[in-house]
Design goal:
Distance between the termini: 20 Å
CATH topology: Rossmann fold
CATH architecture: 3-Layer(aba) Sandwich
Largest sheet: 7 strands, mixed
Strand order of the largest sheet: 4-5-6-3-7-8-9
Helix content: 25-40%
Number of helices: 7
Shape: globular
CATH class: Alpha Beta
Structural class: alpha/beta
Order of helices and strands: EEHEHEHEEHEHEHEH
Radius of gyration: 17 Å
């Protein structure tokens, strides 16, 4: 959690507010809030679209398409039997953190065949949230490797499917082979407050790195 003002790359302080309390933050500054891009990534069906939809203060822009019989033969639907659509380009939403900062959220498609879009979606991002389904950890290695290779600050968020986490977070860290400085947290993509907390972890990490 971010509990104290943190310096942004522009030099001013950010005091996080609770988006649940009043929706959009009151604009007390004379200038518009600084736009900050954050990427929501992970494998197929891990909860990226749900995450963006849970927190966005606008109606999210989604590029969902029906899962065809051909796609069903490629994508693993065993843990998401009721999933009938999939993101084919991106999800987009936004949330105001305070009068000086607004997060713009870009959700990536989960399938490797859409990986060619990643460079465009990630360009200019301050940080990323990699969502993990512990039932299919292998699906998340590509996202972890991507952020590590690009040297973009990121956190790993283990989604609580069915309201529970199947494995210890340190076991997830070991399985994904992520460094100690990478936060590994538990969250529920359906819960607005839980998503908020996860995004603030990434924001704190990114601002700390930017400050040197």
């Amino acid at each position: 959690m971010v509990s104290a003002p943190s310096p942004t790359p522009g030099g001013h302080s950010v005091t996080p507010i609770d988006p649940l309390a009043g929706g959009v933050a009151q604009q007390t500054a004379t200038r518009p809030p600084m736009p900050v891009k954050m990427v929501i990534a992970g494998g197929f069906g891990v909860g990226k679209t749900t995450t963006v939809g849970s927190i966005s203060e606008i109606t999210p822009l989604t590029t969902e398409a029906d899962i065809t019989e051909v796609a069903a033969g490629v994508d693993d639907l065993s843990h998401t039997p009721h999933k009938t659509t999939t993101t084919v380009a991106m999800d987009f939403g936004c949330i105001t953190i305070d009068a000086g900062l607004k997060l713009y959220l870009f959700g990536t498609p989960g399938q490797e065949r859409f990986g060619f879009m990643w460079d465009d979606l990630v360009e200019g991002a301050l940080g990323g949230l990699v969502i993990v389904d512990t039932r299919r950890l292998d699906d998340c290695h590509a996202a972890v490797d991507y952020f590590e290779h690009k040297e973009i600050p990121f956190a790993v968020a283990v989604n609580a499917f069915d309201g529970r986490i199947e494995h210890q977070l340190e076991d997830v860290r070991w399985a994904l082979d992520v460094a100690e400085q990478v936060p590994v947290i538990a969250f529920d993509a359906r819960e607005r407050g839980s998503v908020r907390d996860a995004l603030l972890v990434v924001l704190e990490l990114a601002l700390s790195r930017a400050a040197g």
